[in-house]
Amino acid sequence: MSGPIPVTILTGFLGAGKTTLLNALLKQPEMANTAVLINEFGEIGLDHLLVERLDGDTVLLNAGCLCCTIRGDLLTALDGVWDRMLVGQAVARVVVETTGLADPAPILHTLMADPRLARRFVLDGVVTLVDAATGMATLDTQPEALRQAAVADRIVLTKTDLVPPAQVAALQDRLAALNPVAPILAAIAGDVPAARLLDAGPYDTSAKAPAVATWIGAAAPHGHHHGHHHHHHDRNRHDSSIQALCLEFDEPLPWSGLAGWLEMLAMTRGASVLRVKGLLDLQGEDRPVVIHGVQHLFHPPIRLAAWPEGTPRRSRLVFILRQLEPDVVRNGLDAFLRAARDEAALGAG
């Protein structure tokens, strides 16, 4: 087995069409040998895909996928998938479907915090479905829906064919303001190419340019250099508790300053930092380094094989913040970087 198995988290509010999307995805060749973990079979219409029940919690889907229920414990379910692999069941990836009311953060935590799991599985990405018909109202009334959209690596709009284009456009604008780094895709009757939802993480260290660029949000509007972040004063008061901060640095960064500050931020304000993603040009390092954090947990940094072609050699950091002013983050980082540079200058002198 080569490396940890990628895990995609599929989330979205009740009725957003997760089952339809999952059914359509599982028929695509890229999804062969996928283990699907679902909170409860009862709520899900995968029945026409089911072929044989292996035991109380597991069925084999005719698409060659394994399907297990999560009975309250993701850890146990993933252990079960691993056990099946040990006895020869092929598993290329895992999809975890959360209940509509779930905040995805605890699932991300489980994947990142448990050392045994972290060796076997790696978060590939969070795919959040938003119903174009009811999305605005859901975002207005359900804080979990806002958080699901804010932490997404990909946002899929469903039922866009049932809604006037102006309404879809307004919802897209609102989602882009909440999360400027997630590409927004439209799915009609669950029809989205699996390739656009999978491999949303930077973990393929062969540095395929589009994958890394999309992951770090090259889809975000260009031209926000160091210091500028997205402020949308006209948007719903409810959304303003979540803000995105995108920083770019042309000079290589000192790892000691950056790491010290990330540690400090995680310890003091971890609950307010929904996601951190970075593609970094570090001092003394030829290859790009990728960092990824969820609240107070960080993945160990990953070195990519090379700078992806067409990606400028420049550090880029993206934060999705909740109830934390972007200026606090920016000024703190500047102070830590200054201190690290002064220390290096003293050492050199």
Automatic annotation (TrEMBL):
InterPro entries: CobW-likC_sf (IPR036627), CobW-like_C (IPR011629), CobW/HypB/UreG_nucleotide-bd (IPR003495), P-loop_NTPase (IPR027417), Zinc-reg_GTPase_activator (IPR051316). Signal peptide: none annotated. Gene3D superfamilies: CobW-like, C-terminal domain, P-loop containing nucleotide triphosphate hydrolases. Keywords: Chaperone, Hydrolase, Nucleotide-binding. Transmembrane segments: none annotated. It catalyses: GTP + H2O = GDP + phosphate + H(+). SUPFAM superfamilies: Hypothetical protein YjiA, C-terminal domain, P-loop containing nucleoside triphosphate hydrolases. It comes from the Bacteria. Pfam families: cobW, CobW_C. Residues 242-337 form the CobW C-terminal domain. Zinc chaperone that directly transfers zinc cofactor to target proteins, thereby activating them. Zinc is transferred from the CXCC motif in the GTPase domain to the zinc binding site in target proteins in a process requiring GTP hydrolysis. Belongs to the SIMIBI class G3E GTPase family. ZNG1 subfamily. This is GTP-binding protein. It comes from Falsiroseomonas frigidaquae.
